[in-house]
User: Fold these one by one.
Assistant:
Number 1:
Amino acid sequence: MQRRLVTILGAAGLLLPPALPAEPVVYTPEDIIDWEGHSFSGETRYELVEVDGRQAVHARCTDASASGLFLQEEVDLEATPIVEWRWRVDEAFSGIDETTKAGDDYPARIYAVDEHSILRWRTRALNYVWSSEMEQGADWPNAYASQAHMIAVRSGPPEREGQWHIERRNLREDFRRFHDRDLERINAFAIMTDCDDVGEPAEAWYGEIRLLPE
């Protein structure tokens, strides 16, 4: 009887093998350096370097520039909602107010974007930033566009130069929390180091960006 029930359930498609976990999606520095450049003001310099025995994207902002490297690619948040990345900043800005346009610069940031090319007012973005003055864990709307929400993952200069950090966030939970959107997918990623508002130089290093299952 038990064998017959198993056969019936299998034939009905009700007895299925367990689903395999989603494969991580990894963007190496070699991948990131080939992302499309997008300038808001001037050109931040991005180059592929080797540092501490690993490849990294080195970002240097010296001429009041604000430009980033963007990837237009769909991300399945049901399969891989976790974003994990490595980055390094040796110095931060000082005496700025990042909630204002005059202080809206960050030595390092990672964008995740739910982009709507036609209905642009519906576009929403998360900016995971290395803040200079806001406390770690703080969040606030972007001074130029409230559709982008800023989240201070790190704050201030590190305890010592050359120190790498690994960060991890749940994209799906963050879009729910900060934009009240329960998304199955997003369609753009970016990195950016900018210094156009503050007018002081900035420098950062970006390692791998990984999209992971929960």
Note: Residues 5-13 have pLDDT under 50 and may be disordered.
Number 2:
Amino acid sequence: MGEYNPYRTAPDQSARRNSSGMPAGLFAALVVTLLALLGVGTRYYFYGDLNVIHCLLSLFFSINLLICYWEACLFLKRDYIETRTEYWHRRQRETRRTPAVEFLSTKVPLKQIWSPTLWADVWATYSLFDGSFSDRRTFGFNGDIANGFATPVPTLVLYAAYTVDFLSAVVAGILGVMIFWQWTYVTSVYWVSFFVAKRQCHITRGELYTYIGAMNAPWVLFPLLGLYVSVRLLLDGNYSVLGY
């Protein structure tokens, strides 16, 4: 794939073959993997064991931290995203390719790898499945911005507490109930708003299941597990639910 250029209109095929850098999707996967392994490895270093629930929630916390950065980019580059969405509409008509796949497979120079302009394309390509992310008046747009700015600190606190139990189990349980319920509720309302607005009429069934269903499901399924863990922390008064 070609080197990333946010202002391109038609990528040069020879440049795509010869460019250097890392595919955007691969970089995102590596960030999530390293963040998750940090928690799992720290627990193993201090306690010499692994716990399935801790591993799953470590993975979720890591995904959410990356998404929070993307959601900050959504706010910071909101004007650019509206313009960029039109580019990807044209690009899709020209190539018949899925813009999200094309963007994630495009090689990005390492000096640009944390650029908000780069990751704004996450939302520009996603807007082809749900136009609310290029419309700042919608629930989806504002709900994601709220997650991006409100949840990084609670995410880090719970990640650390579940890994090295530095926090009272009751306090961790209270914080967990608050944040995990918020994720479950907001994502559920997002799904409802999507169907109420009849946005499903503008995409294929496969796109609906993949990009609207599967890609948002972690913010319901993992938080439901987190709610169970949080209630157990409150009732037990200890971290036994996580194997401590």
Note: The first strand starts at residue 22 and ends at 23.
Number 3:
Amino acid sequence: MTQSESVAIERLRAIGREFHGRGWSLGTSSNYSVVASRAPLELLITVSGKDKSALGVDDFVRVDATGRPCDGSGRKSSAETLLHCTIAALVPGVGAVLHTHSVWSTLLSGADEHAGRVRIAGYEMLKGLEGITTHDTTAEIPVFANSQDMPTVAAELRERFARLDWSGPRPPHHGFLLARHGLYTWGRTLDEARRHVEILEFLFEVAMRSRQMIAPTPLPLASASRQQLQQ
């Protein structure tokens, strides 16, 4: 193991403890990766089925661009490894990919699955996303149908993202959601990816709470009955 890999593992272990403590990576949910090599593309990613609050130094595996382990350790990576590899291959400059399972991302992605996207506009916290410099803007987070068939999800992700222009100062997307599942986001560095998780999770909670506040309140049964009697 190289020194840079050792540093990355310690940072990922710390992120696992933090995200578990904030309710974003409970149980054995979530997976985290860093790009270990560009030519060829290889990622260092959490192994499958581990409690993210207690990741050990051996709870990581190096995989190739297809998601297959390539370090000879015999460890098994997450079933969603292929999505990490797809993001790292498609989005220029990605250095880390983080996947979380918060309550708010689960609810919001389910509510907006029919639209295929979540749109969030007008919040100051949007400026925490790379390339955004004003609150007076809209961020769009694509929503994909959840599936246990990761090659199919990866193909859908590739088809949608490959058509986009990622060369500008502001990327077209900072993450995506799997419906009723959770968030994938990324960054040029692990610190940037972690910040994107924090910003997006805040915005998801604000968006969902706002919808709950403006939802019509049903009349109490007694009041409704009285109105019916008066008609």
Note: The chain has one domain: 3-213.
